[in-house]
């Protein structure tokens, strides 16, 4: 039972830690999009195009790596053509004199997003009614447009022209670095520090993509899963038989008479105990349920109800990242004084249900209310010197603490070594007690000086 419990517990712990580590390895563009919005400048179409393209390359890298590890994402994008055509409007074309919003143009949204109706365009930023500049002087038809957001046809040709036998999810990251370097040369990124910060955030993003790919590549050894499964089920299969009891018949066992040829001996045992083995069933429910939990979360990128919602995560990442680098770029609310501008300390209000929490004292530390010694000698500040410092009593580690590798010394003090400094020859010390008020207050000092003098004489050769 001990082996089964330890192996199952270690296995479940390994699977749960791996499950959470895979979730934290999913790349999120939140930090990267903030750096892009702060580093890549320009309110014109070129600056807007650079910011949207940079964050689109980052989202493309995450889609490619999730497409390699998640069944749901692979079913959504089974080929690279689906990555290019993600969200392309398949409805009838616009009327003559009007055009649609294509990938990479203003008005784009995430794949699978709700249909949008755009009004006529004007120069500058979007008006209160939602009209947005086209960048080409044309008019976007008041029709429903859904743009792709990951890869263009030219980018697909570049992607497929690079021959490699390995996964190529890292290619958009290289495009990102080249485009960032070009933006630095063009002055869109104003200094090398901003470029360095941008590339550092990209490297963190790429590291998560790489870690997610390696978690899918290097899985838990199958033999370990088989050993734990066989150990759990075989243990309880044997327990169902081995934990049954046989009750003997009441009374003394009668002396056995000689048996005649062909006669069998009469059994002196009673019937089997057919009561339900409650403790065994509870153990089976706990250990088998524990094992089932590990089996359910060992692959969180499947299609079960409890697996990661990777498709919704892709939609969220693209929508939020494009919104932050485009619509929110230099689109700030006016700065105003807060409500606590003229107050010394800010105290937000409480509701009636939480007003009692405001009466609780704040935690100031575990030693804040600790009472110190009333002896004024213990609070006198002195310089750290061998003469002013009193030798501390040597401590001994108990034998049991040595076996347990206890790091802290035991407070037990040997009477023989009381007052002895480790490494010095042993000399008898007089225990210095606090002088009584009616006695000689200088007697203890004279005893201490005599003790120190005897130590110096003993230390001389």
Automatic annotation (TrEMBL):
Main location, first listed in the record: membrane
GO CC annotation: chloride channel complex; plasma membrane
Pfam entry (one): Bestrophin
UniProt cross-references to InterPro entries, sorted A to Z: Bestrophin, Bestrophin-like
Superkingdom of this protein's organism: Eukaryota
Tagged with keyword Ribosomal protein: no
Keywords: Cell membrane, Chloride, Chloride channel, Ion channel, Ion transport, Membrane, Transmembrane, Transmembrane helix, Transport
Single GO term (MF): chloride channel activity
Region (Disordered): 89-137, 374-394, 432-461
Catalytic activity reported: chloride(in) = chloride(out)
Locations listed in the record: Cell membrane; Membrane
Amino acid composition bias (Basic and acidic residues), ranges on this chain: 433-461
Protein topology in the membrane: Multi-pass membrane protein
Family membership noted in the UniProt record: Belongs to the anion channel-forming bestrophin (TC 1.A.46) family. Calcium-sensitive chloride channel subfamily.
Function: Forms calcium-sensitive chloride channels. Permeable to bicarbonate.
Name under which the protein is recorded: Bestrophin
Naturally occurring in which organism (per UniProt): Zalophus californianus
Species lineage: Eukaryota, Metazoa, Chordata, Craniata, Vertebrata
